[in-house]
Amino acid sequence: MEKIIVSRENDIPFNKHWKKCIGTGRLGLALQKEYVDHLERLQQDIAFDYIRGHGLFHEDIGIYKEIDVDGTLTPFYNFTYIDRIFDTFLQNNLRPFVELGFMPKKLASGTQTIFYWEGNVTPPADEKKWEELIYHTVAHFVERYGIEEVLQWPFEVWNEPNLTNFWENADKQAYFQLYKITAKTIKSIHPDLNVGGPAICGGTDEWITDFLHFCHKEQVPVDFISRHAYTSMPPKKKTPDYYYQDLADPNDMLTQLTSVKKLIHDTPYPELPFHITEYNTSYSPTNPIHDTNYNAAYLGKILSHAGDIVSSFSYWTFSDVFEEFDIPRAPFHGGFGLMALHAIRKPTYHLFSFFNKLGDTCLYKDDTMIVTKHRDNTISIVAWNLIHDKGDNHDKTITLSIPFSSDDVFLYREMTNEHHANPWRVWQQMGRPRFPSKDQITLLKSCDAPFIQTDRLRTENKLLTYQLTMAKNEVTLLHFSDIIDETHTYIGLDDSLLTSY
Amino acid sequence: MEKIIVSRENDIPFNKHWKKCIGTGRLGLALQKEYVDHLERLQQDIAFDYIRGHGLFHEDIGIYKEIDVDGTLTPFYNFTYIDRIFDTFLQNNLRPFVELGFMPKKLASGTQTIFYWEGNVTPPADEKKWEELIYHTVAHFVERYGIEEVLQWPFEVWNEPNLTNFWENADKQAYFQLYKITAKTIKSIHPDLNVGGPAICGGTDEWITDFLHFCHKEQVPVDFISRHAYTSMPPKKKTPDYYYQDLADPNDMLTQLTSVKKLIHDTPYPELPFHITEYNTSYSPTNPIHDTNYNAAYLGKILSHAGDIVSSFSYWTFSDVFEEFDIPRAPFHGGFGLMALHAIRKPTYHLFSFFNKLGDTCLYKDDTMIVTKHRDNTISIVAWNLIHDKGDNHDKTITLSIPFSSDDVFLYREMTNEHHANPWRVWQQMGRPRFPSKDQITLLKSCDAPFIQTDRLRTENKLLTYQLTMAKNEVTLLHFSDIIDETHTYIGLDDSLLTSY
Amino acid sequence: MEKIIVSRENDIPFNKHWKKCIGTGRLGLALQKEYVDHLERLQQDIAFDYIRGHGLFHEDIGIYKEIDVDGTLTPFYNFTYIDRIFDTFLQNNLRPFVELGFMPKKLASGTQTIFYWEGNVTPPADEKKWEELIYHTVAHFVERYGIEEVLQWPFEVWNEPNLTNFWENADKQAYFQLYKITAKTIKSIHPDLNVGGPAICGGTDEWITDFLHFCHKEQVPVDFISRHAYTSMPPKKKTPDYYYQDLADPNDMLTQLTSVKKLIHDTPYPELPFHITEYNTSYSPTNPIHDTNYNAAYLGKILSHAGDIVSSFSYWTFSDVFEEFDIPRAPFHGGFGLMALHAIRKPTYHLFSFFNKLGDTCLYKDDTMIVTKHRDNTISIVAWNLIHDKGDNHDKTITLSIPFSSDDVFLYREMTNEHHANPWRVWQQMGRPRFPSKDQITLLKSCDAPFIQTDRLRTENKLLTYQLTMAKNEVTLLHFSDIIDETHTYIGLDDSLLTSY
Amino acid sequence: MEKIIVSRENDIPFNKHWKKCIGTGRLGLALQKEYVDHLERLQQDIAFDYIRGHGLFHEDIGIYKEIDVDGTLTPFYNFTYIDRIFDTFLQNNLRPFVELGFMPKKLASGTQTIFYWEGNVTPPADEKKWEELIYHTVAHFVERYGIEEVLQWPFEVWNEPNLTNFWENADKQAYFQLYKITAKTIKSIHPDLNVGGPAICGGTDEWITDFLHFCHKEQVPVDFISRHAYTSMPPKKKTPDYYYQDLADPNDMLTQLTSVKKLIHDTPYPELPFHITEYNTSYSPTNPIHDTNYNAAYLGKILSHAGDIVSSFSYWTFSDVFEEFDIPRAPFHGGFGLMALHAIRKPTYHLFSFFNKLGDTCLYKDDTMIVTKHRDNTISIVAWNLIHDKGDNHDKTITLSIPFSSDDVFLYREMTNEHHANPWRVWQQMGRPRFPSKDQITLLKSCDAPFIQTDRLRTENKLLTYQLTMAKNEVTLLHFSDIIDETHTYIGLDDSLLTSY
């Protein structure tokens, strides 16, 4: 049996980069009440710093319009909806990580679109008009929110231009040109505004090197590098409703990040901030893996280690209020969200909220847990038991040895595993109702809370020995704290006089 | 092993008398924010019909006052606070079950008081002024709330006059006289207003016979009989903080009620409604039994059966916002409440909320469970495993056999037992903090939710066989419902393609 | 000066048909948070019974889909969003008045669309598939909400098929055919479900006669007639942002309704319920008239009288969360809404909320006011001073004479006119900010409350004489109530001892 | 006519001492829901920093208790309620300004009490037990809230010991002794905790000199001086319900403060912070003046000027949830509160909320107004028209001349005067209902909002000339801001095409 001896003196690097940013379905969805309800819950429990999503220039927000004025088509910029959306983000203590794209239909040079919601992925028909769109949009943000605020918003140019379905022909030079005019326009508003790219997905990381050399050669401003990271393999099966894939090992993601980090280091911008503006296990919004405890346990290693490599990494996405594939066809459908429809928290939600309850100092971390200390000396641990195999008998036990100053220690534990806090499984037991009734929704919501255990433990020679047993794909949070016992202040207390006790 | 075969054809009597009324600490406490917070939660979850408490005429509400007007003391009736209190009740869908008492200091003939809050328990110094107080008070209720509303409020004269600490000398004739003038005054406002008594505790039930004969002989109006019922024995030990008692068998309470019911039947008012305006296990507000799972399991038989005998029975009380003994000295202190301070739900709270989720038709009930059916054919059961003995090994297993129309049945189960939904135990593990910090309160609150299990069960020949195992002092709620399986509508679904599943 | 003598004995017909139904922007907008915020406010203040809007089958709700299953396109019905929308309505005590349309793109026989949001207005390419769509949709409603609920929902087939922009070629026979198959499909689910049409706008009222004769001849079920009514003239000027029209006299609308009522009467269905499923002054969503006090004053006569003719009349619409012309380009833009963006109440909102405070018995009504009595004898009046002319000097004074039983009467008055509760005017004074800052929004919201006046009036011989003066385009609410004076109960009260008073 | 020329270059001293602290009824009332509702509203609108009230050691909070343990009376400290109260304050962003008193009954040397709620005003029977009480109480605060927090709480010893009704015999030496042992005990917990006195009312200001010399001589720690200030004359008439007094000139208060400031200056502690821990017009909680506009207008000079003299001045009190004289006998009863019962805002509430909307820079102040500038160059003014005479014709007009950079200026004005935002007057018109019905309460609440006016004003040569006319006892808030006119961006806009406009 594994044994871990925790020293209170260690101080292992651990930062909060895991909560710097969170992904969202296209921005237009932020007008929805259900979206806002999910977001409020998320921010109460986890409190991310930034939010990033597609669709800033999409027709459902409608920023760009051309109006016929006496026979001349005149650009008109409508900020009614984007103001409402950004107000919502800021009210929830989230700053926008602004992705500039896709192409407004009226500005597009072609008709290629992506997603159910048909984002146009072609270059601008008129670069001047694109520049004006960027200028008016960013200038409006500055006017409405103040320059001090907007200086804290990163502006990322486009999304995954190295894929043909996100950028016509995945034309690298066309992207660099778009980046150049966009970055220069933004800097013309204020030289300290942050702009970056190339927002690629993995696979053709030479784009990053080329991009930075392009910037260097052409003296194009660049404040950060962004890239995406998924660990899913090619699909085993695609069906009208589902997309099945296996995953690489969690360490594969860390390897990806390290390798890109190294690429950056070998350019003229060796210290440039590096943001993973999207990551997840599978890149498919219909892979049921996202709804599982396996997904939560899988990400434990990544949440605890990726921040050592990158400046931020943004889980794609916080909610299944999302429409890339289609309007959701069932409450559970393999969506990216930390929350399913009706704000039902999935196991991965708990992974994040457990991490949010860790202490400020890290004492230990490995492939299966992270151990931290709070200022009041409470020890807080998140541990996970990732099991790739099918079947049930996969409990794992680890012995923890932790020094304490008191004789007795109070244990508070929360957990999600295949049998607890697993609403996806409950929904299956119910017969997978597509459009559940209100009672069914209430029932599912009641099944999404972590299972709680408490105990009073005895130390020996000021050392606590605790056998931590985790069920299959469990993610568990443990708080061990010193007990200040006041029992003696209850005069005449005698529990033995109580019937049954 | 016990085996219960449930027939869907049975129709055993079961009514909602258990939720007709709930007890409260003295009415003046209803001004408190904490009180109102508890009340709102209670009514959301359980929704009682009436609420009854002491202290209508106490100084903290201050209805009765005498003002010096040019040298003459003139009665002044101040309804500022009682209006606020009754508004609060009605907003929460509770009607007052009005207890008329105790004696305003200015009207009292003596100085004897009861409780930490010093309710005066002596007869009026001036019967005329008492009549005027009753008249003005009830007339004000009618004016403010409308006669149609107030016709639904029972008016109960005094509280436990058969005890010397509640009524000077427990003077029966003095009580009958008080009752007579009070009842006549109320009826002078409207003949259909409801008035009753004698609100005695057990022990001297001949009061009831005498009272009804008195009313008959003197032609005094009487619309209901009220009495209290507790099942605790004489104290084993009293300490400054606690009061320890054993309890009689739960059936003892049913025996008490039946015997009084028979007494009433043998009077000139054989069919008079009979209300238990207070009941609980122990009558002491510092008996830790109230905080336990034992208390919850103990009351299962009573909640399921007492309504067969009486018109209502009112658990004493809904909340530990209560001050008869003292201001609460710790979050758990043996108070009567269904909720501890900070709105922490005790196990008995769950017993009530579980009962509230039963179906309309009762199919079966015995000493350990009640089985009901909903209109949609869901079977809902509340079961309990009352264990008087100390120690841990007291699981109980019962085999249930229930007919279903579908092959698969969905089970949803909630439970509270010594290890789950038992915040009193968590508080002990923490070292019984008297004035817990905000974090400790949050933690305790997080431990008060029922433990939830779900399952998908298979019937055999349309008969479900379920082994119900309950831990010590467990109270459990079970819903068994037919499954409408939609799994086949997910095109291409193949769970086996999912890693780990 | 006009003088009105109110008798308390009169009983003029007045019903609540004015609040039976309210119009809304396309149903998909009901997913928006801003929409729901407006709706909640509306229902708190006015409490309509039904809500009707376009777009049930539009792509943003996505009910109809065809999925490729092994090479075959198979219909799939997605109720995820419509369930959320109808849940929202019902939670706000609104039932859907279901408009069946427009045509899902996948089912359409042509490509003609209407509105910024591109509703397809062509007949079904396949009648069988339309029938199945209707069947599955209505059957789903019955399953989810229960037949007792859905029996109260009217189903209206299509919208304004007599206009070429709403129904390809305004083809009457094609509409009758659509109606026939739709009505029969609905009745196949339950014969008591309500179905009707033809939902025409004015102009070609012979459709109604033809429609009913068609139903009669072909034995097609029909439960109600629906039609729309606007009083605006042809446009004087259309600009990219605005649409200017004059209005006919308010009585023109009553004339329209009476004439259609007569048409119905002369068919085989003389007593068929007749619903005005849309009405307003102008039919343009960019006519600034909708933002004005003139609009409110104009509608006073209609709200007070139209219910004498029709079963319901539904103001088009409750909110400027609306996109027929475009995404709103400024907080005030001439939209139909009772509320502008940011839930700013327009003057017409107050007209409706004032009507909602009238008593149950109508004592008097004319072109300029309606006088009602509450059960407690309070007299409540809504009056309006509609002025077509420009300029400021248009006060109107009317003398009211009302009998009271007390000597003193308390007057409470709320009003909106050009100078009070007129946020449109404040917005103009501010320089018409398109995308107002949060402070500007707060300021505008603070200016939307009715101006309140109170007074204590003296009757003479139990007759109150009150000079009611209204400013230009004022709408005013007056409550006159008897005073129960308690001043004498304050012992020693002497206001003259108070400095300054 | 008065003319005021505002220069944008001036910078007159103006600080926020007026909102440093607010008074409250005894702390035990903070358990009430109505109290908390008022407090939340107050803090949303005005946001005071500290709150001060009597009754920390009163029996309704019950901190001090003596328990019989095996025959020995043992002190027990119960912090259940005070924790709840201070949690409430801190949640509402208020820190306690802790007044240490009065004497717990069990500790008292005598039986003299003050107020309806009977605060004991005698010295401790046992100084040691008082010290222990102080020690345990303050140490508990430190433990629960942290030393960093509690270091910001001033501790003030007792209340108005120079009055015989607040301190037995107004015994100065006894007070000094109490102060000494209290201050030393507090400093023993942490030397930086703040302690002060003597909390006297006016009349015998030599106490302050004597107190400081005593501290100096005996080396008793003292961190601040506190005193109270009222401007009312001896009563003209006292009745069972009311107390009538005239007031001195508002400048009288400033004179009082200056004179005490000078006294302090002439002691060994010349720079000691000086807090007015209570002030108001009348010191009687039944003087109707508190409900009037006169009271609001009277305090304008004091709010704008007293902060130049003292470190804080604390209006006595924020709410009529208050019981010194009695339980409130009517919604308006002359209570100190900024808010009447039911959270009805009185005119003085608006004075404070208007002050809260002033800019950071003061440009001008005099007897009748204060003129400030915001960072965005908006000019904000609070002005008042205090009229001592009876009768109605007391309008006052002042001409303001203010430079602006734009041609057009937007004016937003809020006001309260005898005819607007005067719920006391409405209540009189209604016949002074003592226990108003819910409808009457709703009506009164609807009458407590400031009356709003807006306008668009034209400058001449960049100078705005504005005639400010105020009605009797009006308090008015004015914001003048530059207009950024976007009217020209509405293409084709032509208001003249709109009927009626």
TrEMBL record, chains A, B, C, D:
The keyword Hydrolase applies. Residues 10-456 form the Glycosyl hydrolases family 39 N-terminal catalytic domain. InterPro entries: GH, GH39_as, GH39_cat, Glyco_hydro_39, Glycosyl_Hydrolase_39. The active site is at residue 160. Keywords: Glycosidase, Hydrolase. SUPFAM superfamilies: (Trans)glycosidases (SSF51445), Glycosyl hydrolase domain (SSF51011). Pfam families: Glyco_hydro_39. GO terms for biological process: carbohydrate metabolic process. GO terms for molecular function: hydrolase activity, hydrolyzing O-glycosyl compounds. Belongs to the glycosyl hydrolase 39 family. This is Xylan 1,4-beta-xylosidase.
